[in-house]
């Protein structure tokens, strides 16, 4: 988020046909829950338009980047790397250390989110392999819980710039407005 | 979770072809993050086998139920109903009240998770319409953050019964074992 060191989310291992909506949800979750940027690698790039469209309509700042090759991004990252995997250390055990690196040491954070069969280099290059439970579930769910815990809920209060539409919280029903001029 | 009042997740509005993997992720997220049961309504029923298979291999208790019609489930629910929607009240504003109803008043909780275009009755029948941000992102991400906050992280420590496979947390790499005999 804006005044904090960058948090970028890298989406790996997108399988065309199978992962279209999953990759879109990864991108939109990164945006909604406080990351500054999503990097869509290889065939995941096809999902960039939807994320850009939501950012146009609902605001930013949020960057959507596409790359052909993900390896240089992970290997050369100038900061710390978290890889979300059900095989990793439990999030409740390592989250404080990761928050310290991000907040106290002001390290930009790359959060790597794969599909099935993540190449072994990712496990090795990551500073932390982190499991949101050691159960098989969803990379979207893992990303969401990880970001909420990383930011300790601050992401829920972030403000959006240049939005065409703003949703006003309602007890019942839907209310969408154009933002007031400043 | 086992000693607490039931938490069930109802998946509505599944669109065949488009939502297959999303609905699977909703079911697996419900299981991994502490719900007791997922109810797959209408065409979402096609995804039950994957959730049952994961429960067989990684343990339970967790129930997977399929129903033709969701309306009686919501209308006749004996407890409280939460509907997750980007148009609702902010989760950080209402979560304490929902936790109180679930824990102190021992009310079973139904968490309704829709796709696009949820029928208006759901908004009316829900005790709380809850937004995990008022931004468009993912019903999987909303469910994950909601359950993690409902249980205040206790779901991460739950134990699994009758698992054929147990993942042992690792700093690097993967370790899967058959559980020790008791």
Automatic annotation (TrEMBL), chains A, B:
| Molecular functions (GO terms) | tRNA (cytidine(56)-2'-O)-methyltransferase activity
Annotated localization: Cytoplasm
Is this entry keyworded Methyltransferase? yes
What InterPro entries does the annotation carry?
A: Alpha/beta_knot_MTases, tRNA_m1G_MTases_N, tRNA_mtfrase_aTrm56
Q: Which reaction does it catalyse?
A: cytidine(56) in tRNA + S-adenosyl-L-methionine = 2'-O-methylcytidine(56) in tRNA + S-adenosyl-L-homocysteine + H(+)
> Cellular component GO terms, alphabetically?
cytoplasm
E.C. number(s) listed in UniProt: 2.1.1.206
- Subunit structure, briefly? Homodimer.
Q: Which PANTHER family match?
A: TRNA (CYTIDINE(56)-2'-O)-METHYLTRANSFERASE
Q: What name does this protein carry?
A: tRNA (cytidine(56)-2'-O)-methyltransferase
- This chain's source organism reads Halorientalis brevis
